[in-house]
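Ops channel
N.P.: pipeline sanity check, posting one input/output pair.
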């Protein structure tokens, strides 16, 4: 089944609304109009009755009642009510007020209503109280129905200002004031019928004109909606290239402008979301790598501690069990235990050093002589070089002043020299050099002769606990942490470190740019004065 267009729906909805409204109005007129009209007439009769009694009180007091009489006459004419007021003693009555026409027989009709001789009696009583009654009756002359209000105010009650006495008929047997209000209601049904017929004709014409007009106008109204439908369909397909271009100047244009803004923001949000997803994927990968490294670190620490602990435990149990009474053998056992304990202690210290370096926020800046530092660190290995037959050479200028962190540089130099002496071949050479680079910085090189590092291991030697030759590393007590300390230190300094296989051996470098402190122009003179 083909769906109706918005334009057709608008016309049908308007026609349905008009039909419902006209139908409801006809129904309300048919059911409630006469009752409502009667209710309003009864309210007006009550208002006029109050004005009549006010007029009677002022007239009985002997004061001028012109104002109240004019007010009463205006009210009666506006409400379409005929009124008659008679002042009576025990013998006769005198008309003191009436707005009924003499030619129309109004006073006679009112007198008949007052005497209860106006028709076939009361058809319905609407209200009654002390001295008055409101009821529906039929006019004896015209045969039309009317509403009469007959009342009596006794002369003896004038001071109290309330209506007392009886209004059942009239005989002027008691001094006081008699009044009657009457209004015809027979035309109400005819008026309602005429109004309903007119309403049907007007409603049909309005319905026809409204449906045609709405169908024509809805085409213009729905044009921007159709454009926004196309725009929303493309947005659903994540195509934000189209924009709303309508200019209706109303809420639809505001909606279109908002959709344009939404398309722009969605396009930007999707791009940001893609970038965030990429960053999140990188963060997850980094977290996974961190977790992997943590697990690997724990595994390596456990592995490194397992062997010395087992050795210490075994030799300690041997000593406890008295495996040998020979003092020399016991001393050897104790030396092994002490050596293994020293290896564990050295590994723990290196781990603490590495943790401190990795947790540092940055590097402390101070001026020191890097050449002097390298000479001092190399002197610590002189005894070892002599014992192992290794040639140690230090190639540095007389002074190499830098503005950097001396503690981090000590870590770099110590671990580079220690690593070189661990891997240098018997009778080989270790060469330590410090020099300026082309970027106002320094470059430190430590070379040792010996076996080359496999190419696949050059990038891995900076990882914690990585060992190219695990058996050889174990022999001298290495833990595989030294080069990790070097890398962490250079990262904090903002420099770089590298390793390369060169002819005859392996060369390690550490380089930091922009840290060189230029010598003062009178540096020579200052040094001479200090020496003096």
């Amino acid at each position: 089944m083909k769906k109706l267009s918005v334009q057709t729906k608008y016309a049908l909805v308007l026609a349905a609304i008009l039909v419902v409204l006209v139908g409801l109005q006809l129904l309300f007129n048919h059911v409630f109009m006469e009752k409502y009209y009667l209710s309003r007439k009864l309210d007006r009769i009550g208002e006029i009755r109050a004005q009549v009694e006010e007029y009677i009180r002022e007239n009985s007091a002997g004061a001028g009642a012109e104002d109240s009489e004019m007010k009463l006459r205006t009210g009666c004419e506006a409400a379409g009510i005929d009124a008659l007021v008679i002042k009576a003693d025990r013998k006769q009555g005198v008309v003191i007020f009436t707005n009924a026409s003499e030619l129309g027989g109004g006073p006679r009709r009112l007198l008949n209503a007052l005497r209860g001789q106006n028709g076939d009696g009361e058809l319905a009583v609407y209200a009654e109280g002390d001295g008055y009654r409101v009821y529906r009756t039929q006019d004896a002359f015209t045969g039309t129905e009317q509403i009469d209000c007959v009342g009596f105010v006794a002369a003896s009650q004038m001071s109290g200002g309330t209506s007392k006495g009886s209004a059942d008929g009239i005989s002027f047997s008691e001094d006081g004031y008699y009044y009657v209000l009457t209004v015809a209601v027979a035309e109400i049904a005819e008026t309602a019928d005429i109004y309903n017929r007119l309403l049907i004709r007007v409603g049909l014409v309005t319905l026809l004109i409204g449906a045609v007009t709405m169908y024509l106008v809805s085409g213009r109204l729905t044009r921007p909606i159709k454009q926004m439908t196309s725009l929303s369909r493309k947005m659903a397909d994540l195509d934000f290239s189209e924009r709303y271009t309508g200019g209706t100047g109303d809420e639809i244009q505001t909606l279109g402008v908002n959709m344009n803004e939404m398309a722009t923001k969605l396009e930007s949000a999707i791009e940001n979301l893609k970038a965030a997803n990429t960053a999140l994927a990188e963060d997850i990968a980094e977290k996974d790598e961190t977790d992997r490294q943590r697990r690997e670190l724990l595994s390596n620490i456990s592995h490194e501690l397992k062997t010395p602990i087992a050795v210490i435990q075994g030799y300690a149990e041997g000593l406890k069990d008295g495996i040998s009474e020979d003092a020399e053998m016991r001393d050897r056992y104790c030396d092994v235990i002490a050596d293994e304990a020293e290896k564990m202690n050295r590994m723990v210290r290196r781990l603490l050093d590495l943790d401190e370096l990795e947790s540092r926020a940055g590097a402390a800046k101070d001026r020191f002589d890097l050449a002097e530092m390298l000479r001092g660190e190399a002197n610590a290995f002189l005894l070892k070089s002599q014992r192992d037959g290794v040639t140690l050479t230090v190639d540095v200028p007389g002074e190499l002043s830098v503005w950097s962190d001396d503690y981090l540089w000590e870590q770099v130099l110590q671990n580079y020299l220690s690593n070189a002496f661990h891997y240098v071949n018997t009778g080989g050479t270790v060469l330590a050099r410090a020099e300026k680079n082309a970027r106002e910085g320094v470059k430190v090189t430590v070379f040792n002769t010996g076996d080359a590092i496999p190419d696949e291991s050059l990038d891995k030697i900076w990882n914690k606990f990585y060992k190219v030759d695990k058996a050889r590393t174990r022999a001298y007590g290495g833990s595989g942490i030294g080069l990790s300390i070097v890398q962490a230190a250079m990262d904090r300094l903002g420099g770089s470190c590298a390793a390369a296989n060169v002819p005859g051996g392996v060369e390690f470098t550490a380089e930091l740019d922009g840290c060189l402190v230029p010598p003062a122009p009178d540096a020579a003179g200052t040094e001479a004065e200090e020496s003096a």
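N.P.: looks fine end to end. The chain has three domains: 6-191, 243-359, 360-531.
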